[in-house]
Amino acid sequence: MQLPSSVSYKSSASAIIYRDGGSLELRFTADDDRSYCIFMEVVNDSPDDCKRYHPPMLFKGSFDINNSKPQDFIGYLTWKQIKGLVSEIKMDISQDVEKRSDSAYFELIENIANNNGWLIKKNTLALPL
């Protein structure tokens, strides 16, 4: 999978969910040995049973909703790019997936990507949003 600026997944992926209603963050190390972060912000007025997400954003380093610098923003990603990235991550961590506390978040991100930015709770894992 090709991300903007020739950023390709290498290792060290992790995922978290925010307590803002369901925004997600995916961090990883790329082939250039730098850290990157993808932020997937939930649309705040989404109904509880059917969440909608803004297009994923790629940042250099880590993301801080209050302190990220404009120069760290690389660009927007498509849900197809997210699907490819999550597939690579799942292949990489497949042996340790059951030991990881964030494995359910990778499934959640994959479900959202498969539905082009929509999360319908009845079709996904029962995760707190």
Description of the structure:
The protein has 129 residues and is α+β, with helices and mostly antiparallel strands. It is built from two helices and seven strands, in the order E-E-E-E-E-E-H-H-E. It has helices spanning 79-93, 103-114, and strands at 9-17, 24-30, 35-40, 50-52, 57-60, 73-76, 118-120. Strands 1-2-3-5-6 form a five-stranded antiparallel sheet. A two-stranded antiparallel sheet has the order 4-7. Helix 1 packs antiparallel against helix 2 (103-114). The mean pLDDT is 84.
Strand order of the largest sheet: 1-2-3-5-6
Overall, the morphology is globular
Major β-sheet annotation: 5 strands, antiparallel
- Cα distance, first to last residue? 28 Å
Quaternary structure classification = single chain
Alpha-beta classification? alpha+beta
Q: What is the chain-wise order of helices and strands?
A: EEEEEEHHE
| Total number of strands | 7
Portion of residues in beta strands equals: 25-35%
Report the C-alpha radius of gyration, rounded.
14 Å
